[in-house]
């Protein structure tokens, strides 16, 4: 096995990056959510004339990568089918339906249905339904009909 003498005797020309390394660490500590690119911008603002590739190399060597967020936590356990209610006012289902007018404006409809009698208790349409408005409508129908044992909502975001 032979090795070229120029390779064996190659002196590294890489300088000491201690000052730059400390500056990158300091910026990463101050701005924890900044990734490599934003750290490079901050370093350049401080007066360091440094290539983005060098910043990335030091950033990864120092293990300063921003951790990625975890996914949505799903409910644990087995799902059970809902038991049918025995009579009226046992369970109400709350849902939102949305559509668009001919001029393109969106509107939403709040529906509350008694699951036993399939009676529509609330039907409110508006361009925006705030949480306060929903609570007010529920309070109104509860004053009229009495409090149900449970109120269920599908809680699924619609793809609009």
Brief description of this entry?
It comes from Octadecabacter antarcticus 307. This is Putative IS3-family mobile element-associated protein. The protein has 160 residues and is of the alpha+beta class.
Shape: elongated
Tell me the number of strands: 4
Rounded mean pLDDT score: 88
Discrete helix count: 5
Physical arrangement of strands within the biggest beta sheet: 3-2-1-4
Provide the helix percentage: 25-40%
If you compute it from the alpha carbons, what radius of gyration comes out, rounded to the nearest whole angstrom? 31 Å
State the secondary-structure class. alpha+beta
Describe the structure.
There is one protein chain. The chain is α+β, with helices and mostly antiparallel strands and 160 residues long. Among the domains are: 17-61; 91-153. It is 32% helix and 19% strand. The protein contains five helices and four strands; from the N terminus they run H-H-H-H-E-E-E-H-E. The protein has helices at 5-8, 18-30, 36-45, 52-61, 131-145, and strands at 91-100, 106-114, 120-126, 150-153. Strands 3-2-1-4 form a four-stranded mixed sheet, with helices on one face. Strand 1 (91-100) and strand 2 form a beta hairpin. It is elongated and about 90 Å long. The mean pLDDT is 88.
């Amino acid at each position: 096995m032979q090795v070229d003498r120029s390779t064996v005797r190659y002196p590294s020309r890489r300088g000491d990056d201690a000052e730059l390394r400390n500056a990158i660490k300091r910026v990463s500590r101050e701005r924890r959510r900044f990734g490599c690119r934003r750290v490079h911008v901050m370093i350049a603002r401080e007066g360091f004339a440094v290539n983005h590739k060098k910043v990335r190399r030091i950033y990864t060597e120092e293990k300063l990568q921003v951790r990625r967020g975890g996914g949505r936590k799903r409910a644990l356990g087995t799902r059970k089918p809902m038991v049918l209610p025995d009579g009226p006012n046992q369970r109400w289902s709350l849902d939102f339906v949305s559509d668009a007018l001919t001029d393109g404006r969106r509107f939403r409809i709040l529906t509350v249905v008694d699951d036993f009698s399939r009676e529509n208790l609330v039907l409110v349409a508006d361009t925006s339904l705030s949480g306060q408005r929903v609570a007010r409508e529920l309070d109104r129908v509860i004053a009229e009909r009495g409090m149900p044992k449970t109120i269920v909502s599908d809680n699924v975001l619609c793809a609009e």
